[in-house]
Model the fold of this input.
Amino acid sequence: MKIKKLLITTMLSTLLVSGANAQTTGPNGEMATPSSTVTVPEAEIAKLKAGNYTAALLWHEQSDFVNAINAGAKDEFERLGIKVVATASAGFDAAKQRSDIETALIKNPSIILALPLDPVTSAAAFKEAVEMGVKLVFLSNVPKDYQHKSDYAAIVTDDLFSMGKQAADVLAQAIGNKGKVGFIYHDADYYVTNQRDNAFKTTIAKDYKEIEIVSQQGISDPARAEDIANAMLLKNPDLNGIYVTWAGPAEGVLAALRANGNKHTKIVTLDLSEPVALDMVRGANVVGIVADEAYELGRVMAATGARSLVGLENPAFITVPAVTVTADNVAEGWQRSLHRDAPKSVLNK
Amino acid sequence: MDQLTQLATRINFKQYVVYIGFLLIFLFFAIVLKDDGFLSTRNLTNIILQTAPITIMAIGLVFVLSAGEIDLSFGSIVAVSALVAAVVMNEHSMILGILAGLGSGLAIGLFNGLLVAYLRLPSFLVTLATMGLFAGVARMLTDLRSVPVLNSTFTGIFGSGSLFGIPSLIYWTVGAVALGHFVFRETKYGAHVLALGDNARAASVSGIKILRMRLSVLMLSGFCAALAGLLYAGRLQGARYTLGEADLMTVIAAVIVGGTLLTGGKGTIIGALAGSLLMGMLNNGLILMGLSVSDQMVVRGFIILIAVALSLRDTNH
Done:
């Protein structure tokens, strides 16, 4: 499902550094500021509405994730009286992104929200926008050598560390803070999954001394998840829980558990998926899904751009919290993450 | 009335569909977006700059299609040549970088050509396979990393600079189209390409070395793709393994809408230029209209469909 999102964020080689034992930090070691603290003061809204400001949304791809960000940004811009004059998707093509920027600049937008496709080629692509004084708010990545304030307003990203940590917390709670767990991680040099996987492992080691990771298996092809889970369960039939790197392979792990008639091994995974959520609301193996707040990503990007227009200072690096979705809050969790109703099958159990 | 019909038959409107379509769409955007800067010199220049690599690739494809073959691998060649040029340039010199970039395009074209001409494999399958093969090579070359191109002479000549106030990409577009048109229409080589695409057996009987011709058109396509790769590297001031990946369908659409037959024997370079500019203008105008991304895709698809239907209608192929 979110493979594309994963792939793109992995391209971000010079990306937001975060050590395995650290919180998510910015490209130059900036401390993260929670998105909830970044809003447009009521007093500034009238000024923004009177300013006839405009914005362009230049995304890197089209997906569920981007749709939710786009919706968050559009709603916030509408609230602030800022007109969205251009929307484009580069389809992961750096050349198309450059063309999209040039085309959007014809409409003289006051703000551009974008995910720079890669630090190297994006540096030239956004240069004209910087020179024109457009307020740039970047998602998850920053063009090479760009400076906060002089070149861009802020970088906004998921709190990847929290996603992995919250997955550890929800699994630990479900198994009574002790027992044996399996760890199915993404075996590739992918920033997003690597950070989340490491955060899970670190949290278990640091915060849950009575939980032991007894089996670890990397996965690069989600289609192989069922085989991997079968092998893991064959060696460790008494596993209390399994962490699965994202929802796609988690569906395969669930298939393995069902085929084995296994009802005692609990599963935790990341990113929303209807089949996984259905298992969770039925009280079967899945105990929690941790997702990012995509809609909030869009909202805070728009708010940051608007703050820049009225001369307010912005933090350099803003993170959006992760949301732990369980059977008890599935409707609310879906709303918080994607800002839409959960699928009917999930709501009706 | 009869005279009018005769005149219409003689003019053969089909041939001009791309130009008429181009004008109609241009007029539509000019009216709808008159307050949105569509007609500004900057925007019209942008369209030409943005389509320059597409136009150059389209020229190569006109030769290949006219000869009755197809090349699906040029998108991958773009990425390989841009990366090779960037790496060699950063480690040695600009000249060596350019030669290595263009050379790698020619070499891949030669590889395609040898398989098609001498092993008698269908070009569709050969280039389908090499498209994937060289996309993989492009990923391996720098382990998915982008390579910056910092040589300002290179970026000036290939994409970012200008001379007498005219951006270098316009010189490349005009030069390549003029040369391509001349070779295609005015030389024996161009005539042989068309003869081969029209009827390979007849071409062979009349003394045309058809194997060598097949090899040469695929090499030409490789060369054009490599040049497009250099232009991308100059324009973006960096090379990346995804360059050209998304261009396959745009280039094929530009060439076909322009009036070149997929089945060979008929092609036009000027038509391909018009097709390429039409594609660029659609991208540009639909974004300026403020449409959502999905709406842009639907409208673009419909317009291309109409253009292709009009330009191919009534053909016996």
Remarks:
- The two ends of chain A are 22 Å apart (CA to CA).
- Chain A touches chain B through 34 residues (CB under 8 Å).
